[in-house]
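FORM 12-B: Structure-to-Sequence Request
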């Protein structure tokens, strides 16, 4: 195969389809002779496929041949035929419906993709819009993970750059869910931390948790392991209303109820908190009241409750 410019010239030498050309001068790679490539993909190194003006032909080396790494040279060459655009796309793409070049996947608009539905280049995953990704659904470059919008990530779901963890929006993190930079722990919003959940800089110890606006001796992980945390997660934010329990007003507002057999009702915070609190046992309420630094006024404000000091005292002293 041989590449040409739009006028079927190569290095200012004019060629014509069907003609044979010969030279008496000794041939030498990159010096003298008629050059060609044994592999069509190698032609891209000299006449890029992406240049729509370039033309490509099938040729026959009739005389002496000297081979190099990606091209060869001969003293006698025949320009057999020009390769049509349609045939060219079939040759350089193994997949289907590609508008790019050298794709082995399908529906790519970029080049050299082995995955599917890529708009970038050199992707081995699917649905990438960046370049050189080996994962899926990346919009950045050089990602080996999935769903990254940044660059050079080896984790998943990063929007920053150079992360090896997952779900980072910062840069150069090796942990997960960091919004800061250069963290090796998880869920840091600060920078250069080697711990978890730090909003500071150069920290190696996980910060103590603040409860009711005051510092405690408890870490966030310890908080998540408390009975109080489990109880608070039981506040019902929504509930399913079955068809037979729906009012006419609800049926009008949610017309999909017939197909679904009902609808999911969102419960306002105040209503949800009141119902949740009324169903707690005396011992569960004690778990809440025994939290470090418990402040009744703050608790009522956030949970939208109206627990009186009298009720609080009766539970605590039970």
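FORM 12-B RESPONSE
SEQUENCE OUT:
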């Amino acid at each position: 195969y041989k590449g040409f410019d739009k006028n079927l010239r190569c290095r200012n030498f004019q060629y014509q389809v069907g003609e044979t050309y010969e030279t008496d001068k000794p041939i030498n790679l990159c010096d003298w002779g008629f050059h060609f490539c044994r592999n069509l993909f190698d032609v891209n190194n000299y006449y890029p496929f992406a240049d729509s003006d370039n033309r490509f032909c099938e040729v026959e080396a009739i005389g002496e041949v000297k081979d190099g790494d990606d091209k060869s040279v001969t003293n006698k060459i025949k320009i057999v035929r020009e390769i049509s655009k349609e045939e060219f796309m079939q040759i350089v793409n193994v997949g289907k419906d590609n508008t790019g070049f050298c794709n082995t996947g399908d529906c790519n608009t970029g080049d050299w993709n082995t995955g599917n539905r890529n708009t970038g280049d050199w992707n081995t995953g699917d649905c990438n819009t960046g370049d050189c990704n080996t994962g899926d659904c990346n919009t950045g470059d050089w990602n080996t993970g999935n769903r990254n919008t940044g660059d050079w990530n080896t984790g998943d779901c990063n929007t920053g750059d150079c992360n090896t963890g997952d779900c980072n929006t910062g840069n150069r993190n090796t942990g997960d869910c960091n919004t800061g930079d250069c963290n090796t722990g998880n869920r840091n919003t600060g920078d250069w931390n080697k711990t978890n959940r730090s909003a500071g800089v150069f920290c190696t110890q996980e910060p103590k948790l603040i409860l009711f606006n005051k510092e405690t001796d408890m870490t966030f992980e310890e908080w998540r392991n408390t009975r109080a945390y489990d109880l608070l997660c039981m506040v019902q934010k929504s509930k399913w209303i079955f068809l037979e329990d729906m009012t006419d007003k609800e049926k009008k507002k949610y017309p999909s109820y017939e197909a679904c057999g009902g609808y999911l009702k969102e419960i306002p915070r105040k209503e949800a908190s009141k119902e949740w609190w009324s169903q707690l046992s005396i011992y569960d309420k004690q778990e809440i009241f025994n939290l470090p630094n418990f402040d009744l006024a703050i608790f009522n404000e956030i949970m939208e409750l109206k627990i009186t000091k009298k009720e609080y005292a009766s539970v605590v002293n039970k």
